[in-house]
Amino acid sequence: MTIQAETHHTKKHKHSSRKHNKKKDSVSVTVNEKSPLIPKKKTGGHNEFNGASMSGAVMNLSTTIIGAGIMALPATMKVLGLGLGIVVIVIVAVLSEATVKTMLKHSKAGGADSYGGLMGDVFGDLGKKMLEACVVINNLGVLVIYMIILGDVVAGSSSEGLHHPGLLEGWFGQHWWTGRVFVLLVTTLGVFVPLASLKRMDSLSVTSGLAVALAVVFLIVLAGIAIVKMASGSLPMPRFLPDVTDLNSVWNLFTAVPVLVTAYICHFNVHPIRNELEDPSLIEPIVQISLVLCTTVYIMTSFFGFILFGDSTMGDILSNFDSDLGVPFSYLLNDIVRVSYALHLMLVFPLVFYALRLNTDGLFFSSSELPLEFDNKRFIAISVGLLSLIYLGANFIPSAWDAFQFTGATAAVCIGFIFPASVAMLGFQSL
């Protein structure tokens, strides 16, 4: 679609006066579904933006990958066994790299600047709408998982008749203001609303770097505790293969698949990150570096987490850090682990929300004349509506594991594997 937009660039005409050149001119700007939400370059004043750096892009993509999925990976080791689980993590990483490469290859061939534009080129408007719907379902589910984990960490949770106190309850005791509903409301209004207002992905590179650093802090503490307990001989030998005894245990193996699939879904942010790069050709090495970094973190977290808690590992491993771990300064280490990862999830939130808001706009407001960036009313309305849904979902969905099963078995597998494979099969005929 073509829209009229005001620009501050002066337009030279053969018979224009110097005075006229200083005024804003109205020009025609072509904006379609392939156009990035934010222009790659902006000039003027102190807001000059000449493209994102490679390091910032690596941080943003790595942060998109390392989200809530890392907390459920130790529980998948309980289902698959340590040996098989690590092998599957590596296989999914390789498949994810292949699907992103396929997506970028066909985007370049068709000149698409977005995942939706690529799906539109190959499958028409229906394909674009299907992708947008899947991204909305997946990202909405992922952000609900983030909120559930934050609620578990800060306000506490109950599972199988056992209550796991949160940070506030452990510090101050049980009060109305340490309850889940109030804590999540304050978190939403005080943290997520300001972060959700950011309009350019590169502006999140600093927070993404902090998020990766906090994930590393969590991993170091987890590994340190496990190594100390292994050295003292107080940890049993972990299972390396799944415990298959009957038909139900066979079916139980498939519950690990959605978590593993969700753990690597970053495809919806690859194009926005590439569009903002100073050198877009760097996107493939950026993807490879990010996947290697995240796979290393995933394997180490799965290994040390399952070794430490064994068959007692919960769907959200942070819930295991609420009792004496049998090491010096146990309760202090528990708090460090939970606080560091709660902060990590807060910093990851805007990256996932960025794509959620953009695809929600494309799904429901595709006929709008102005891009979302320039329509403040639509931008605010979509943001508030999505944050409200996330808040309600975090209060009514029982656990993060249940949400993982839904998103990973439906939308995530389409975004990460089915759609790229379909593009690979039909792309050359349609582009």
TrEMBL record:
Domain (Amino acid transporter transmembrane): residue spans on this chain: 52-426
InterPro entries in the record: AA_transpt_TM
Keyword terms: Amino-acid transport, Membrane, Transmembrane, Transmembrane helix, Transport
Comp. bias intervals (Basic residues): 9-23
Domain of life: Eukaryota
GO MF term set: L-amino acid transmembrane transporter activity
Topological type in the membrane: Multi-pass membrane protein
Transmembrane segments: 49-73, 79-100, 136-157, 177-198, 210-231, 251-270, 282-309, 339-358, 379-397, 403-428
Alphabetical GO biological process terms: amino acid transmembrane transport
Main location: membrane
Compartments where found: Membrane
Region (Disordered): 1-45
PANTHER family in the record: AMINO ACID TRANSPORTER, AMINO ACID TRANSPORTER, TRANSMEMBRANE DOMAIN-CONTAINING PROTEIN
Name of the protein in question: Amino acid transporter, transmembrane domain-containing protein
